[in-house]
Amino acid sequence: MRTRTASTRISTITAKPSAKVPMASPSTGTAATLPGTRASGRKFRLGVMGGTFDPIHHGHLVAASEVAAVFDLDEVVFVPTGHPWQKSSRSVSPAEHRYLMTVIATASNPRFTVSRVDIDRPGLTYTIDTLRDLRAARPEAELYFITGADALAQIMSWKDIDELWSLAHFVGVTRPGHELHDLGRKDVSLLEVPAMAISSTDCRDRVAEDQPVWYLVPDGVVQYIAKYGLYRALEPADRFPATN
Ligand SMILES: Nc1ncnc2c1ncn2[C@@H]1O[C@H](COP(=O)(O)OP(=O)(O)OP(=O)(O)O)[C@@H](O)[C@H]1O
Ligand SMILES: O=C(O)c1ccc[n+]([C@@H]2O[C@H](COP(=O)([O-])O)[C@@H](O)[C@H]2O)c1
């Protein structure tokens, strides 16, 4: 279970609405009528919220919403992982469950969408593949990859990290119990978001111990967990016809 300590104070935060963000690949949109070009002439801004989402919780949703507001994103696509290689020390729920919980959690927000790119791609999940696939599917968009302080701290160990910087702008957000490190790169912004001391680990542990997860995860996700008996020690989370 994650430690619950006060949010770290940081000084290098980009927190102005509609702040100009230094992009690895500056916008080249030239006309408002080009596909994927906004009325203002700028390119479509697509946030990418990658995660295992086992289950998705309000920490994920608040982080995505806050980055969307500050960076003036047009859409945030949530991308559940297929086989997260850095979580191999524990068993992860079937992808189909995690995908459906993510769909339920994001359904009410017209700017939130969910992508299957990672769960439909065989093999281990690497963000380099996520971003390549999204670039191919959405060539008109500038990508903003959203990551919490804990994930950002590991980022130098990610596959093909040198190429990753050229595919997206990265936004690291604060998370209670984790220090948000300044990587000293202009293609990484740091942002303080409302502190949500919630983790998927804690949600799973609560369900296993018969404690409530109401208001930690969206209502529909509470009901989905109960319906399929997810996270109950004696009830394996495999009643759904899953793909992995
Ligand atoms: N409470 C939170 N506040 C801010 N960012 C978060 C929060 N929870 C998760 N994130 C970020 O969301 C992304 C996906 O996280 P993930 O799905 O692994 O959730 P988690 O709560 O960390 O799960 P677990 O407890 O199983 O490790 C990561 O970048 C992570 O840093
Ligand atoms: O590309 C990698 O090597 C890599 C290693 C660890 C995590 N990631 C990505 O980071 C995001 C959050 O991952 P996680 O494991 O914290 O849910 C998710 O999109 C993962 O695919 C990516």
Can you describe what's shown?
- There is one protein chain.
- The protein has a domain at 45-196: Rossmann fold (3-Layer(aba) Sandwich), CATH 3.40.50.
- Helix 2 packs antiparallel against helix 8 (219-228) and helix 4 (127-137) packs parallel to helix 6 (161-167).
- Helix content is 29%, strand content 14%.
- The chain has 244 residues and is of the alpha/beta class.
- It starts with 43 loop residues before the first strand and ends in a 16-residue tail after the last helix.
- The chain has helices at residues 58-70, 95-106, 117-120, 127-137, 149-153, 161-167, 200-208, 219-228; strands at 44-51, 75-80, 112-114, 141-148, 169-173, 188-191.
- The protein has a six-stranded parallel sheet, with helices on both faces.
- It has eight helices and six strands.
- Bound molecules: adenosine-5'-triphosphate and nicotinate mononucleotide.
- Nicotinate mononucleotide (NCN) binds next to strand 1 and helix 4.
- Pathway: Cofactor biosynthesis; NAD(+) biosynthesis; deamido-NAD(+) from nicotinate D-ribonucleotide: step 1/1.
- One of its GO terms (molecular function) is ATP binding.
- This is Probable nicotinate-nucleotide adenylyltransferase.
